[in-house]
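Input (Cadherin-4):
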Amino acid sequence: MNAGCLVLACSFLVGASVESKPSQPIKPPCTPGFSQNFYTVILSRDLLHGQRILKDSTLSSERVKFEDCQRGREVGFVTNDPNFGVRHDGMVYAVQDVSNLSEPVQFMVTAKGLHEPRVWETTVKLALAGHPHPLALSKAGITEMLSRVWDSQPKVIKFSRKHQRGSAANGLRRQKRDWVIPPINVPENSRGPFPHLLVRIRSDQDKDVGIRYSITGAGADQPPSGIYNIDPISGNMFVTQPLDREDRASFHLRAHAVDMNGNQVENPIDLYIYVIDMNDNRPEFQNQVYNGSVAEGSKPGSSVMQVTATDSDDSTTANGMVRYRILSQTPHSPIPNMFTINSETGDIVTVAAGLDREKVSQYTIIVQATDMEGNLNFGLSNTATALISINDINDNPPELTVRTFSGEVPENKVNVVVTNLTVVDRDQPHSPNWNAVYRIVSGDPTGHFTIRTNPITNEGMLTVVKPVDFEMNRAFMLTVVVSNQAHLASGIQSSLQSTAGVTISVQDVNEPPVFPVNPKVIRFEEGVPAGTTLTVFAAQDPDHFIHQIVRYSKLSDPANWLKINRTNGQITTMALLDRESIFVKNNVYEATFLAFDNGSPPASGTGTLQIYLIDVNDNAPVLIPREAQVCDRARPNSRINITAADADADPNVGPFVFELPSFPASVRRNWTISRLNGDYAQLKLRISYLEASVYEIPVIVSDSGNPPLSNRSTIRVKVCPCDDNGDCSATGAVAAAGLGTGAIIAILISIIILLSMVLLFVVWMKRREKERQAKPLLIDPEDDVRDNILKYDEEGGGEEDQDYDLSQLQQPESLDHIINKPAGVRRVDERPAIAESQYPVRSSLPHPGDIGDFINDGLRAADNDPTAPPYDSLLVFDYEGTGSTAGSVSSLNSISSGDQDYDYLNDWGPRFKKLADLYGGGDDD
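Output:
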């Protein structure tokens, strides 16, 4: 090939930059260089023969970007493979004929600024389409390939030397261009042995001075550290462990050379290490089960769904290139391969026609994804399941099961189901393609029937919505059409079985009598006498084909004014009709009547009679108000406005006529009345002063009826003295109430006497309370150690003896059962039938010495006396224990001398202190 031949689908775009818009997010700082560190180009073998490679314009569509942040930068490109070159626009081309290429070729492309020393590198790999990948070889082939990769690495990398340029006299020379260090390729998952020598780093000055070598960067002295190391003396660089490209695809290290003192003798060089991908990862589907759908009847090529699998290996190599295929289809109806899959995109489409949901509603597809471009011999595979549902279309019209339906319905009934129309539809149940819609197309012009669809069974329920009359129509012949809620699919014709006839028979029933006019309104003047015939309220029997007798009765008559003839329905009055009655509303009196026949079973109907009562002047007007109040002296505002109320209606009400009677004469002498308008008049004093009191003034009121009615009404007027504002004062109000001056004085005196008595009683109570508090106590409060006395009004034991049986207090009629009672606890209300104990009798003037004997004798007698009261409670003496400071009371009789000293009683406690004072002669505290 000549130098103008275009060879690779890889171009390097120089100066490609895009200005960011203000609305876009801020981009990170621009970094010049290639967009990728490693490019793979797959070419067809045919493109490498003859001139076809020159004419294939599709190769230039794939480009690799070189980012130049400075638009004026001049960049040159070179390769390290003599068979390939790079044009000034970055296009890679073949310098020589490479049609005999049998293995992938890998070379390095270097970009360097013409006016600056900086360089950028990338690696390009050229492989033929269909060429076996190195990992597709046998184990021996893999070992051989790895050895080729190891052996292809540069053996020695020298530090670049910079020579100065000058005149010939001083020996200066032109500076040489720096060496471009090719990248180091290391295959992943290598089995070693480790450490494995990658390259040797050396300096030209190692013959003159002692050199120490070192490397820095991620993988060496930075995390992940320890992957690479270098012998500081020999400069041999090693990899210490297997690499994983999916974990880290490249490393950037720096090699340093220093002398024995640590001084830098060479500029650091950059080492780029690329991990060569191996096919060590299977394709992984994003889902194990995919769900897709396609409409039944779809044409071949219809899209169904897409499955996607990803491979962690390098997608630019065959290791990560996934291809898809269908392994199986279940069921095989109508053919085993109804679907196909795009091997590259994973799109599943239909292959053949014939998808029918009514036959097969779902297909199960097993899809396989294989890397190595689908090579089943060497690629790794994985599978997933695709469930394809066949969507229903309305390709089956509904069909009525029979051509004729029949039913019957009773007359005058609504919302009754006459018959059920059954239908068959093979489309998806409970979908618009299956839901049936029924229509009545003929036989029901008046709209007596409708058809509702049962949402569960899809049956048509023929229902009566308007009552049918047996006397008018004894039968109906309907024509019914059924269709789907959704339109039929294109090309599908409606079936003849979608139409049917329905025969409906009407059943005759006993209908109730009907009043022709209901309600019936009549007009009468109020006050018509009892026994007056008002009207005939008769009903008709709609059952024309059956002769039946109709009878009448009264159902509602609020005032009990009317009666109805049982046979002919004649209405007559039983009392006077009064328009002013509370049972009349808006001049209308309403009553209801019942008409019933003698059918089987009997039927009845209700009719309403409304009597409009015309008003007559039968109510005299009544004066309003009945009470009023004016000042005792004639004032401009001392007037009473009066009107009248009349129960009648117009024109038997106002305008009213008001006048004062001639008798008694004092009325017209003291008062005058004047008309304000047709409904109001004004009553006021004729004289300048009238004594305060209550006056009853008669007024004659007449209405405007024909003839007019009059009424003598009395208005009660209170006349009282008024203040300057014309308001009645309090004293005047009392005087106006009818009390004289003497009565008022008597009332005031009585109030004063009553208040005095109350005051004297309060003073007396306070004085008595003061005397009671000043009276000295018999016992000093300090010595009074008694508890509070609780008084009980019953003979029990107080609070703890509330629930007792009163029958136990009754004295038994016989004592035999008591005498013969065995020993034990005796009822306290039983009186023993033995001789009563004799208590000792003290002399009227006892000697102090016999007090102890008297107490002991009394105690002994009480203990032995079963008859000791009270009989209704049990006397219990609790043992108070030993150690009492009072000692024993029996010590009182230990001294027989008359002159006995009782001062020791003071030591017995506060309870004996008063006794010691009485007998010991001590002073009271």
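The domain at 622-720 is CATH 2.60.40.60 (Immunoglobulin-like).
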